[in-house]
Each structure stands twice: as structure tokens, then as C-alpha cells.
Amino acid sequence: MVPFAQHRSASPLYGRADDIRLIEGLVTGARNGVSAALVLRGEPGIGKTALLRTVTESIESALLLRVDGFQAESALPFAGMQRLGTPLQPFLGALPAHQRDALRVAAGAADGPPPDRYLVGLGMLSLLAAAGEDGPVVCVIDDAHQLDRESLEVLAFVSRRLKAESVVLLFSARDDGPFDLITAGVPTHRLGGLDPLSAVQLLRESTSGVFDPYLAAQIAEQTGGNPLAMIDLSHDFTVEQLTDASLAEQPFPIGRRLEQHYTRELREYPASVQTWLLLAAAEPTGSTDLIEGAARRIGLAGEVADLAEHSGFVAVHRSAVRFRHPLVRSAVYSAFPGTDRRRVHDALARVAAERGLPDVEALHAAAATTGTDDAVADRLEAAADRAGMRGGLSSRAYSLARAAELTSDAGIRNGRLIAAAEAAAGAGAAQFAFSLLDDLDERALDTIGRGRSTSLRAMLAVFLGDPIGIRRAPADLLAAADAFHGALPELEQRTLIRAFEFALTTEWMMEGVSLEQLGLRLRAGAQSQDGPLSIALGALSAHILLPYDEAVPAMRAAVEMLQACDDATLLELGFGVALGMGLWDERASVELLERTARAARDVGSLRVLDTSLWVLSILELVRGDPIAAGRYVEQVRELRRAIGYPGEQVVNASYLAWVGAPRAQVEAIAEATIGTGFGGAWTIAMTGLSVRDIAEGHYVDAYKRLKPMIERPFLQVTYQQWPEYIEAAVRSGHPDAAAAAAGRLRHHAAVSGTPWIRGVADRCDALLAPDSDAEALFVSAIGWLEQSTATGDLGRARLLYGEWLRRMKRRRDARQQLRAALSIFERAGAPSFSNRARSELAATGEHAPRTEVSGVASLTPREETIASMAAAGSTNQEISSTLFISTNTVDYHLRKVFRKLGVSSRRQLAERLAPADTEDDYEDHVVRSKP
């Protein structure tokens, strides 16, 4: 047998010139300030590790970081990331405080609230970027599929956000489903078998005998060009045996057969050496101290370690034992019966306890146990709790699941299964969470456990897109809240608020409960205990059950409570936008959402951030500003890409309607949402189409779209459609319907009193008023809307006033209003309304040129988003936190934007991105545009 070191030196790297050039090119790019990530994929033994070693050993003037994945490390949260980040500690001072704190808590170096894994990811990205300021950083993550899930998620996140940090991340991994899911979006390079010529060269170098090239080609073909298979087999067989094997019908050992080959090789050594190797295979971190301590405990002599290393299976270093290949370790561990494996795990557990390593001790104690053992289960649960405190939700889930298996009491077992499922859901492992819930013993499930299980199933239904579960989610959450009543009042109230939020999602498709029944249950829940949740539930129930004038005081009090609360409370209470929009208070709604988004970024809560940005994109459409909505949609895309989802699948159908996408496309998207149970998404899409119908003069179509929604009311989702319905009804010959809706809108305006609703109500009344009263109402509408932030409604008021003035033969006055309207619509990016305003101007005898901001069309969506944020005054750090990219990447994109637009400062950028905004500016533009 050949020692490990000799195995390495006897393995020339043939046939990998193109692969070497590819990786060297990435390293060269890092030297030039361009970052990259790459996953090397391939079957065991194909040469991934050798390729990475060959390239990185020759790197000079770069910081080289290495970390290997270990099979059992999934129970040790952020363990891989901690090992990778240890050499980077000198750069921690360059990070924002919240990112630095998140990294330290995740690493177990500080106490604090459990950090979201994406905040940890942003912190690691910033840390690598800071290190890259001193020179290129090359990170090699070998056997990445065996990293703990938290570390892998962080490093995959970093890989997707790299751009200009002088950092290269190189992963090697086998084909593995969970790994593929986590690393989605990271570039992949598959390593295949060696070509025949290279395989022959490798065999000639690896065997002592002489054989002809034809035989070598046959062997290479039989092994699929797998270098490890060829090398190990050539060491194990004579040329004559290889010749016989090449003539046999059975293929050469590879994969499982190669593991069997290693097992046969293992059996050639003394029992003591085999046992020592089993100890090494059972210890996931490869700790030399733990392995040697366990070896002494089971009576192995000290020299056995030297004999084990001489076998060539392992290399023994001062701090760690490393197998020469994962297949070798797997083969060794699998070669022993369960009794032997449990014996070595027990020894390792006892040594870990002596060393003060409770998490490692619990891991090995669980592996050493058969059947149930409540004491071990308790220790494993404690380890799970510690993992959760560091933000290690995946590790917490798996540890609790194993603790449940070891638990004898059915009730305690159920509790651990539910807690494991909740942690798995928090980590995004929805299918695993469902499987844990399916293992519950229904007979031993208490009322609280049933409520937690029901609540979690409802949440998972939305996560997995289960239409039936989505439609029933509000009713299921009410049932869960009933289970908590009288025992856990805070959990009851939070569950009720979640039921309301889900009702907004599924809307008119909600099953199992009516809107009135929901309101009554919210009212009852408000009495469970006092506090912010009680105020919230009281306001939501009033919103549903009471006449508008009676509901507004409670709604306003709840909004004011949200405005006064701290960020942590705001993140937990997501109902504010419903009340703000119900009050027609667009300022408060936007401010609460923007503040929620900032707080979510600060703590790395990407799900809350995703929801906030998505609702902001919808709210901007309600305010009539498609460009602002598009920026939020682009931020959602960036966010989805950051967490590994295709950003191209982010589609806001209402936004597409506003910006001129084909009607058939928008309608198809809207109809597709019906099958998913997301009734709210259908309503939003139909509303967007109705607005476009109105802009383009298709009033009958708009009326037909809006009428069923008006007749099927759903809170503010409906009465904020009243203005569209009134205009469509007036222009399509339904004055009675328009008058009835206008009366309700007028009543709401009198009660709410915000500038937005007052302006919209006056605009709608102007459409119904005789000519003698219409002008005063239009002027009043414009005055109110100028005090609001509803850009689109202001533009539409000026457009309708201008159209009315033109019909009154007052062309000069009409032009003034139409110019202002056109400027608003072009600034907001509303082409249908812009075209209508332009046509109306043409009818007054004035040609209105199309205005474009010079060079903006050449910007990519990401560049446009960054440019807009920079022009609005955001710093590079703020932009990086918003888009989950490094400040280096922000700076990289801004330099490109400056070159494309021909500017040299942010002030000039702001001027370039701001089109004509005042009437005088517009007239100057018209004059300059004339030949």
C-alpha cells in the first residue's frame, strides 16, 4: 500500500489544461478587481480536489482560504463559515456594526438576537470585500455538498452577489439535490472523465508494469476516465489482472463498486488500525485531539495512528485528520456494523464531554444511541437551542428531529417535532417541515400543539403554492388561534393578525370563513390581552365590521401606534398598509412600508423585505407612478436572485398593464393566479388593466372589468377602485352607478379628510357635475392632490380638466393643464396616459415632442436602479444594503452609469435623471425642440 503523500505525488494532472485555464482566468480577473464564483461538479474521484489544489498552490500575492465540508457537520451551524472566516478577523472593523454583530453571533463569539442567515451573508460579503481591498482573495470550498446548511446558504448568497470585490469562490461538489437547490444561480462547470490520451498517460505513470495503449484505452473506457478509479485500481491490481478485467463483461469498480474496493483494501490491515480509521471517519470535524482521546479510551495504542496514516487512507496533521477522498471515509464508516459505529461514537461523545464540547458530545451521543434515550434527547435539544440562538435554523431543525426520535414520551416527542418543523420552515425547508408534521402522533397532540401544527401548515401552504391550502389559510389560522385562546394570548393575537394578512392575499377566493366572521373573531381576540396587538386587532375588526365613520378613529389610532413603535415591533406587525390605505393616507402607508423595508434589511429578514418591496411596488401603482413601481419590482428581482430564485419570474401584472404590455399577456397572467388561490393578485391585475382601459378610452371594457369587483366588495381593495369605476361608468353611459359610487366616495372623503381622497372625490364629482360647477371642482381637486403624493391622480385631474377646457373652447387654458399632465405622466412612466395627453394637446393645435432623459435607455435595469437611488441621495452603503451587494459593486456600477450618461458627480446625475418638471421647464423644452 502507498502512503497518502505518495498517492498525491504519483497522480499527475493530465487532460485538465482547459479546466486549469478557466480557473486561472477567474483568479486573474480577481487581480483586476472582478469577482467570480464557480462550482466544480462531478462524480467522486473525477479530480475536482486535485484540480483546485493544482491551480491554487501556484497562486502568489493572494489571500488563499480553504475549508472542507464534513458529512456530519450539518448539526453544527455556521461551522464551515467560521473556519473560512477565521483568517478574516482583522477586517471585521471595516464592517457596519449590524453586519459585524451578526457574524460574531453566528460564529458563537458573541451573544445577541439570532441573526437572519441573509444578514450573515451580507456581512460575509462585506468582510470578503474588505479583505479584497488589500489584494485578491481566493476561497476554496472542497466537498461543499457536505458543509453545514447555514454555511452553504451564506456562501451561495455571497457567490450570487459578487461583482467587483477582487474575490473568487471556488466550490467542488458531487451531484446532490439539496446542494443544487441552495446554490441555484451560481455558475457551474462540470468535470468529466479524462480523454483517452490523457487516461493512457495517467495509467502509464501510475502502474509499474508495461502494457500496450489499446489496453490502457480499454481500462480508461471501463472506468469512464475517472482518475481516482484508475489510480487506485492500478495500485491494487497487476497488469495481468487489469488485462483480465478489461476482457470481462463486468465494468471496472467505480462509485459503489469503488467503495467496495476500498473496503477490501481496509480489511488487509490489523483490527486496531481499522478501528482507529473508523474513529476518524465517525468524527465529522476530523479533530485529532478528539480522535486520539477516543482511541485511548477504547484501548488503542498510540502507534496505531502512525500505522493508520501509513495505510494511505488518511493524513494525520496536528489539528485534523483528513481522508484522502470522501469516498474513502464513506467506505470506512460503512464497512462496520452498527454496534461498532455506536461504540466509537460513544467514545467520542465521552471525550467531547471531557473537553467541554456539549454540541459535539450531543451529536455523538445521539449517533451512539438506539431506540429511545430521554437524557440524550434532552442534550440534543439543548444543542438545538444553542444552534437557534446563533441563527442556525437548519441545524436546530435536524437536531430537534433527531431528539424527537430518541424521545419516549409521545407528548414531548410531538413538541420537539413541531419545534423542528417551525425551524425548518424558517430555514426554507418546507418539504422537510411537512414531513416532520406528518410524523406527529395525533392521539398525543394537545390543544396548543394542534394549534401550532395547524398554523404552520397554513404558512407552508403559501410557501409551497398549495391552492387549496392558500384559500383555506385564513380559516385554518382562526382555528389555530382558537387553540391558543385562554393559554397563550399573545400567540393567539399574532395568529389572528396573520389570518387577516392571509385574507388580503386570497381575498374573494377565501374559503371556510366569511369576511364578517373573520372580523368578529378579530374583535374577540382584541380582548385577550392589552397592548399593541390588541390595538391592531381592534382596528382591523372595526375596519371590517363598522361603518366607515365609526371605524376611522380606531384605524387611525392603530396607524399612529405603528408610527410610534420600535423597528422590532414594526417587523412583527405587517398589517399597517391595510389600515393606512383604508384611511386614504398614502404618506403614512409608504412611510411605514419603507421603514419596515429598512428594518428588514438591517436584520437580514429577506422574507419581510420581499413582501414590503412587493407591496410598495403595488402602492406606487395606486399612486400612479409606474417608474417608482418598476424600481421596487427590480429590487424584488435583485432580492430573489440573491437567495437563488430566478429574478425573471418576478412579474407584477398590474405594472405590465400600466407600462403597455400586450393585454392578452396581462390577462393570461391574471387568469393564471386564479388557479393558485391568490385572489388579491388577480384583483390587482384587473385593476391595472381597467386603469389602462380608461387611459386609452375603452370605457366600456373598464366598466365591465370593475363592476364585478365593486359588487363583491373587499375593504379598501374595493373602495379605492371607486374612482376608476366612476370615470368608467360616466363615460360608458351608466350615470346612476357612477353617482351612487361617487356618493360613497364623498362620504369617505368627509370622514377621512386626507388630501388624497379629497382630491380624488372632487375629481370624480367634477365628472358628474354640470359645466357651471365642474371647473371649481377640478380646481379644488388639483389643489388637494398637489398636497398629496399621489402623482398619477394629480396628472389625471389635470388631464380631465384640460379635456374639459378644450371642450369649452378654452384652448390656451387647456394647453396649460395638458402640458402639466403630460410632464407628470412622462416623469411617472405612464405611456397610455402620456399618449392621451399628447393627443389632447394636438387637438388644441400644439405638437408635444416625446421627451427622454438622454442616455437612460442604455442603462441596464440594475444600473438604472442604482443610478436612481444615487440621484435621490442614497449613499453607496445604503444602496449596497438595499440591493444586497457590496459597496465595491455599487461603485463599479456607478462608474459605468457616469460614463454612459456623461456625468462626473451625483449632482449632475440627479439633474440628468430629472425630466422637465414645471410648466416653465416644459415650455422651454417645447421651444428648444422646435426646428
Automatic annotation (TrEMBL):
Record's protein name: DNA-binding transcriptional regulator CsgD
Domain HTH luxR-type: residue ranges: 852-917
Any Pfam family the entry gives: GerE
GO BP annotations listed: regulation of DNA-templated transcription
Highest taxon above the source species: Bacteria
PROSITE patterns: HTH_LUXR_2
GO molecular function: DNA binding
InterPro entries, A to Z: AAA_16, P-loop_NTPase, Sig_transdc_resp-reg_C-effctor, Tscrpt_reg_LuxR_C, WH-like_DNA-bd_sf
Keywords, ordered alphabetically: DNA-binding, Transcription, Transcription regulation
Gene3D superfamilies associated with the record: P-loop containing nucleotide triphosphate hydrolases, Winged helix-like DNA-binding domain superfamily/Winged helix DNA-binding domain
SMART domains: HTH_LUXR (SM00421)
